[in-house]
């Protein structure tokens, strides 16, 4: 099985990365193929709303986005993670999500759409980190990642929130959160094996 973890943080050894690694623990122990990417390493231009992807699954903007979608196409499971910047995901993650407009089609009207991965049996876990101790201060970070995953047709298995984590590595001290992350990773694998 192929597991793709997409990190919206530019801190490559930061809290989001640690959280994603905890989710990946079960897959690593089972020796599945794992790839963790940092969106900051890719050139992803802003969506222009040109509708050039209408009628296909392909974005017409030529940058690194197509490479990311190829990885997504090949994955059996996807983990989406982002720290909270001003009550939402990072700009790297938001640009990626906006460009994934190409992964939905409107066959009949604008009120109903089909996600590219609908009925593909691809599964997803979402994860978010927030500096503040209250989940309300996370804004829509986790709900945006989760809603997005469902919209493109991924089966959402679980979501993990790490609160009160600012300094790089702070989440290592949050044993309850890390245990929840490992459980989410185990549930993800169980869903794939069904």
Question: What brief labels describe this structure?
Answer:
5 helices, Rossmann fold, two-stranded antiparallel sheet, 33% helix, 20% strand, 194 residues, Flavoprotein-like_sf, FMN_Rdtase-like_dom, NADPH-dependent FMN reductase, alpha/beta
What topology emerges from the helices and strands here?
Blueprint: E1 2-7, H1 15-29, E2 33-38, H2 65-74, E3 77-83, H3 91-99, E4 104-105, E5 114-115, E6 123-129, H4 141-151, E7 155-162, H5 175-193
Describe this structure in words.
With 194 residues, this protein is of the alpha/beta class. The protein has one domain: Flavodoxin domain (Rossmann fold, 3-Layer(aba) Sandwich). Helix content is 33%, strand content 20%. The chain has a five-stranded parallel β-sheet with strand order 2-1-3-6-7, sandwiched between helices. Strand 6, helix 4 and strand 7 (155-162) form a beta-alpha-beta unit. Helix 1 packs across helix 5. The longest helix is centred in the last third of the chain and has 19 residues, at 175-193. The model has no long low-confidence stretch (mean pLDDT 94).
